[in-house]
Amino acid sequence: MSDEKQAANAHLESKSEDAPAILATSSLAARFEHRQHTLTKMEAIKENKWPLLWCLYMFFLCITWGFDGMAGGIVVSITEFRKDFGTPYEGDYVVGAIWQLGFQAATIFSLTFGAFVSGLAINRYGRQPVILAAFLLSIAGAFLQFFSRNLTEFVGGKILTGLPMGAFTTAAPPYASEMAPLSIRGSVAAGMNFSIVLGQLIGYGVMREASKYADARAYKVLFATQWGFAAVALAFLPFFPESPYWLVAHGRADKARKNLEKLHDASYDYDGHMAEIQESLARQNQESDARGSYAECFSKEAR
């Protein structure tokens, strides 16, 4: 019993020693959050111009998602594609319903699988290597679709392009939410959906212009354009700053502080932002502990 009392007393003493630091962190976080919420939209944009530019980079990933998905879906409507891959039918060419269903199934399956795997990979390695791998797969998928000689190869290309689409949807929204200032975070998050639709509109525009060709270029231009998206994204990727939230959550607070210093000028409240990140992550951990796990749903106590 004496050992238990000593352990309890030591725990209480430890908590009492940490109390000033916890209070200081809470005070800094509260001050930071209050100031962020009082900023006007223009003030928030001016103070966070570099983080918002990287949010735009993530918007570009969503534009790529919208374009890639649209390019693979509308290609069947192009006459030259049906001539090269379809069969004659009543003076026209058609692609069988089974193959069209296969196109959709391949995209949905690979997108879902890509989102699942990339979520695990981002949690472990961060977003930069995952985005790199995603665009390399996108390049390979576009290559296979561009040079495919039959529908089997074309479906393989769609699977390869579907995997990065899943990665983009997993990487972009959380990053933008973490990097955007509090006062306009909702607007920035909504921009993701707009970017996807914009990518689809670009896909329609490219198809309309390419349809003027009377050969394979009428549909191959769609796949070649995907290489352009990848080239632009990869050119900026080496400078991509990881989210301070992710860095702090993985025990790299010093790197998180350095990223904040690169993204903001000297007058920025770095201490307050770091405190807000730490407090936010602490709340998330507490909520996760309170919710329990999926395994507990199947425990004897829950039956």
Please report the number of helical segments. Answer: 12
Query: Averaged pLDDT, please?
Result: 85
Which word captures the global form?
A: elongated
What is the CATH architecture assignment of the domain at 48-241?
Up-down Bundle
CATH superfamily of the domain at 48-241: MFS general substrate transporter like domains
Give the SSE string. Answer: HHHHEEHHHHHHHH
Keywords: Membrane, Transmembrane, Transmembrane helix
Protein name: Maltose permease
Subcellular location: Membrane
GO molecular function, one term: carbohydrate:proton symporter activity
Give an account of the 3D structure.
The chain has about 300 residues and is mainly alpha-helical. The protein has a domain at about 50-240: MFS general substrate transporter like domains (Growth Hormone, Chain: A, Up-down Bundle), CATH 1.20.1250. It has helices at about 1-40, 40-45, 50-75, 80-85, 95-125, 125-145, 150-180, 185-210, 215-235, 245-250, 255-265, 270-290; strands at about 85-90, 90-95. The chain has a two-stranded antiparallel ribbon with strand order 1-2. InterPro entries: MFS_dom (IPR020846), MFS_sugar_transport-like (IPR005828), MFS_Sugar_Transporters (IPR050360), MFS_trans_sf (IPR036259), Sugar_transporter_CS (IPR005829). It is a multi-pass membrane protein. Its main location: membrane.
Write a short abstract of this structure.
The chain is an all-alpha fold and 303 residues long. The chain has 12 helices and 2 strands, in the order ααααββαααααααα. The chain has a domain at 48-241: Up-down Bundle (Growth Hormone, Chain: A), CATH 1.20.1250.
